[in-house]
Amino acid sequence: MAENDTTDRPDESGYSRRQLVKYAGVGATLAAAGTMTGTGEAWADDTASRRPRSGSRGRRWRAGDHHVHSEYSGDFDTTTTPPTFLKGADAVYPIVTNAIMGKYFGLGWMMCTDHGGPNHSKVNLEQAYPDLLRSRQLVPDVLQFWGMEFDAPALDHHTLMIPRRNDEAQVLFELESRFAKRDAYPTDPARDTEEKMVEFLKVADRMRHKPLVLAHHASRSATGLGVYGLDTPREFRNGNNAAPQVYVGFEGAPGHQAGPLNGEARGGYGSYPTHGGYDQMTARVGGLWDSLLGEGRRWWITATSDSHVHWTRGGTDFWPGEYSKTYVHARDEYADVMDGLRSGRVWVTTGDLVQSLDVTATAGRQEAVMGETITVSRRQNSDVEIEIRFQPLDGENGNGDRPEVNRVDLIVGEVTGVGTNLDSDTNPTTEVVARFGRRDWRRRGDEYVIRHTLSNVQTDLYARVRGTNTDEMEPEADGLESPWDDLWFYSNPVFVNVR
């Protein structure tokens, strides 16, 4: 090999260009690019080369990940004025490496969400964004959103997803520089208040092309069951009240799921654990998620990698799509993926336990799927048929396993309206109304089908579904067991209104 030939030398990812070419099948493009480090000239974003619009029937389940870190999640040398950005000090992979690995593990969309810091808005604008444009050119099969892991005032980190438009870089710069609590230098305590968070959400809600905001690892700072830390029920409600089309959910399954493979807590939840890999706010039946749904809030869950450093390199992470996936029912278009996330056409899984999931509520001629609502009459026959369809993984998952669904649960709760207690984190009406084992579903083509009738429905309600490869009746608190042995999928709800 020639002295200057880097084909087989590892880059910051720990993989050589030859290996990355193998993973992504983009050899010719990478050869033309010449390097994987993302330090070359910025590529123009040619809007004329966007995918053609498909019809409304072009929607299908598309796997993605909205919480992925690149080498632009760094550190800051505060001995200089202004502080100097230290690239790659926290997460280590170039943006394009994450996109290549996401494609390899079956993702059709993803998002770069780097940490902020003093004057990081300029780093995003001047350094990271040109690399994102370049990555879009190198890996065109993956829709790559622009945004960040927003340093939310008074709360833990959040996704801030910017609509795909020619002004997306400037939009993020303005929001980050104005509202991210760590962007100000010197530090400004007035940037770290709940009032500032609500102001940010109201500004975002007034934008013609609205961004999306979703909470990350919401209970990672909790010290017990229902003993919350940085993120609280009150703050979620106040934020959702301020911007119901912007602030729409939280991670049901947080990232850092590979922690146990290196002796660390799953998700980095060191004070109070995840349950089956899911945050307590999601995993607890009748808990906070159900409390929010019971108020009629359109509040959705997702699953992400939070990838910084792969576990084989000493980190606690899987590659994007390797373990956790957020499926959105959408066309192969940026706007429709965002619309799916905003509207709740979403389900999540770990370990590729299933590769498709549909939950449908039917009453008479009405039909609703995840995120939608049907209306029935209290005076007429108000039976609601719930149909659950899922497709097992066709092949092996990222661990080389062929996981099998052991049980599926149907969970139903009443919708009683917005309450007066902003701190409420329970919905006592929520329960598992039916559990289905392998003898309870029938095969139809490549799918398995389950049907259940909710008889004589007399109150507003929602129905959601979960499934597992375990025999646990409820997801148990996680220890250091392999995450590959403890897999769950969750749907977002379908709603039923009664009048």
Q: Write the CATH architecture name.
A: Alpha-Beta Barrel
Instruction: Assign a percent range to the helix content.
Output: 10-25%
Give the uncertain stretches in residue-range form: 1-13, 21-55
**Radius of gyration over C-alpha positions, nearest whole angstrom:** 22 Å
Shape: globular
Question: Helices, strands, pairings?
Answer:
Blueprint: H1 17-24, H2 27-33, E1 60-68, E2 75-77, E3 84-86, H3 95-104, E4 109-112, H4 120-138, E5 143-150, E6 158-162, H5 168-179, H6 194-206, E7 212-215, H7 233-242, E8 247-253, H8 280-283, H9 288-294, E9 300-303, E10 324-330, H10 334-343, E11 346-350, E12 354-363, E13 366-369, E14 373-376, E15 384-392, E16 407-414, E17 431-436, E18 442-444, E19 447-454, E20 461-468, E21 488-491, E22 494-498
Helix pairs in contact: 1-3, 3-4, 4-5, 6-7
InterPro entries: Pol/histidinol_Pase-like, TAT_signal
Region (Disordered): 40-64
Organism: Nocardioides aquaticus
Structure explained in plain terms:
The protein is α+β, with helices and mostly antiparallel strands and 499 residues long. The protein has a single domain, classed as TIM Barrel (Alpha-Beta Barrel). The chain has ten helices and 22 strands. The chain has helices at 17-24, 27-33, 95-104, 120-138, 168-179, 194-206, 233-242, 280-283, 288-294, 334-343; strands at 60-68, 75-77, 84-86, 109-112, 143-150, 158-162, 212-215, 247-253, 300-303, 324-330, 346-350, 354-363, 366-369, 373-376, 384-392, 407-414, 431-436, 442-444, 447-454, 461-468, 488-491, 494-498. It has a 15-stranded mixed sheet that branches. A hairpin with a 2-residue loop joins strand 18 and strand 19 (447-454). Helix 6 (194-206) runs parallel beside helix 7. The longest helix has 19 residues, at 120-138. It is globular, with a radius of gyration of 22 Å. Residues 1-13 and 21-55 have low confidence and may be disordered. Residues 40-64 are annotated as: Disordered. Residues 50-61 have a biased composition (Basic residues). InterPro entries: Pol/histidinol_Pase-like (IPR016195), TAT_signal (IPR006311).
